[in-house]
Structures are given as structure tokens and as C-alpha cells.
Design goal:
With 261 residues, the protein is an all-alpha fold. It is 51% helix and 2% strand. The chain contains ten helices and two strands. A two-stranded antiparallel ribbon has the order 1-2. A hairpin with a 2-residue loop joins strand 1 (55-56) and strand 2. Helix 4 (98-105) crosses helix 6, helix 6 (148-170) runs antiparallel to helix 7 (177-194) and helix 8 packs antiparallel against helix 9 (214-227). It is globular, with a radius of gyration of 22 Å. The N and C termini lie far apart (74 Å).
Length: 261
């Protein structure tokens, strides 16, 4: 009997089947729906970056927060600071949108989703794929997925800023619909961030004795419960941030205009 090693050609190839699939269920629905939802989100995010109606006091559109240039309305600046000064004239979203976007695109759930929906790698379990070779995440560009933990740290900061925006909209202003939309969005974004696999590992994943670290163990238990809902929180928070962003822009454009908007 011929044995295969980790470096042998047989081990480096995908398992091959002649049939496209033996499945009889509508397996194509998941990758198709994923493709449609993600494409809609990408199209909206691209439009939102260049749309200038991102602030309607006291509401700040999440895709343009924080505002870090002097071209931003003073109320929209983070604690009144504008570290990028007058020289930066491009849309404010370009400065910060890469941080939450990088966090999502390297997220374990999103990897599964767009690997199947966009790259068909594979499109579904037990379904043949068009790729003849598989290198996993060991080579460029997929090796960049390993920076997910660092995007997690950035996402924590962004989540806190969105929470600050929601509190600013609530304090000293009538609690309009937009206020509650921003609050709900901030809660969902932070729950999604905390449910991250990296957060679970950082919290207490490398501890050998939970009994010696009771506080970290309790935090790990809380994050583990959130982690079980990571997929749901990833999708819900994606819709919530897009909905909150669109609502603020509609208010800023005067399309949505009613008492306590």
C-alpha cells in the first residue's frame, strides 16, 4: 500500500468526484442569497462613502463616523478634534470605513459566506467546485486573513465611537426615531464584535486553569454565549448599520422629515 505524506501530490489535491453533486436539496440557495445580500451591501457602502449627506444634527451616519477632518461639521467631529486638518478633502468615510470592513471581511463567518457565494470554494458541502487546487489560507492573498485579530482591536474602537454617537443623539435632544435606531445599531454592532472568535480566544482561550482566573473565566463564558450566535449577529448587525446609515442620510436630505425624526 502506498502511503501519502503531508507534502505528497495526492494530499495537495482536492478530493475529486465525477458528479457535480449527489445532493437533491436546493443547495444553491445559500450561495445565491449570500451573493445578492453582500453585493447589495457593497454597492450601498460604495455609494455611502461618496454621499455628502452624512450628518443631520444630532444624528451621525455610521459609515462616516468618526469625522476626522476640518471639512466635517463641528458637531460631527470626534470630541471636537480634527487631526487630519484642512488638507484632507476626500469623503470622511474613506478614513475609517476600512477598519470595520476589514474586520468583517476577515471574520470567520464572513469567510465561509463569501468563499461559498463569491469564490465557489466550495459552493456548498458535497458539491464539486471549479478550483482544481487548494492552498487554504497559507498563501497570498488569503494569508492576509490572519490579521483578523488586529482588525478586532480596531472594531472595538469603532463600536465605542458608534455608542458615543448614539449617546450624543440622546442627551439634550428629544428622543426621536433616529436616536433609537442609532442606539439599537450600536448595541448590535458591539455584540457582534464581542461575539468574535478572536475575542473569545483573547478573553481566556489560552488559560490552562480557569479556577485561577475567575474574572476572565466569567468573561469567557459570556463571550462564548455570544459566540454561539456569531452568524446571526453578523447578519443582523450588517443590516442594522446599513439601515441606520441610510436613515440618517434620508433625514439629512430632507426626505424623512417629521416631528422627532
Amino acid at each position: 500500500m502506498t502511503q501519502t505524506t503531508a507534502d505528497s501530490p495526492a494530499r495537495r489535491q482536492r478530493a475529486q468526484i465525477k458528479e457535480r453533486t449527489l445532493r437533491t436539496d436546493p443547495w444553491w440557495r445559500y450561495p445565491l442569497i449570500t451573493f445578492i445580500i453582500f453585493m447589495a451591501f457593497l454597492v450601498y457602502a460604495t455609494w455611502a462613502i461618496f454621499d455628502k449627506s452624512y450628518f443631520a444634527s444630532p444624528y451621525h451616519a455610521p459609515f462616516a463616523s468618526p469625522c476626522l477632518a476640518t471639512s466635517c461639521p463641528e458637531e460631527a467631529r470626534l470630541f471636537g478634534f480634527a487631526p487630519f486638518g484642512d488638507w484632507y478633502t476626500l469623503p470622511p468615510g474613506l478614513l475609517i470605513l476600512g477598519l470595520p470592513a476589514g474586520f468583517r471581511f476577515t471574520c470567520y463567518y464572513y469567510r465561509k459566506a463569501y468563499y461559498r457565494g463569491f469564490w465557489l470554494s466550495p459552493p456548498a458541502c458535497a458539491v464539486n467546485e471549479p478550483h482544481s487546487k487548494y492552498t487554504g489560507e497559507s498563501r497570498f492573498p488569503l494569508i492576509l486573513q490572519n490579521v483578523h485579530r488586529y482588525f478586532f482591536y480596531a472594531a472595538i474602537v469603532v463600536g465605542l465611537i458608534l455608542a458615543i454617537d448614539a449617546v450624543k443623539a440622546l442627551i439634550g435632544n428629544p428622543a426621536g426615531l433616529g436616536t433609537w435606531i442609532l442606539i439599537v445599531n450600536a448595541v448590535l454592532i458591539n455584540l457582534y464584535t464581542l461575539s468574535c472568535h478572536s475575542c473569545r480566544h483573547i478573553t481566556a482561550g489560552r488559560l490552562n486553569h480557569f479556577s485561577k482566573h475567575p474574572v476572565r473565566y466569567r468573561a469567557w463564558g459570556f463571550v462564548s454565549k455570544l459566540n454561539a450566535k456569531h452568524q446571526e449577529l453578523a447578519l443582523i448587525s450588517m443590516f442594522s448599520v446599513m439601515g441606520a446609515d441610510l436613515y440618517v442620510r434620508l433625514v439629512a436630505k430632507g426626505i424623512v422629515n417629521f416631528p422627532f425624526a
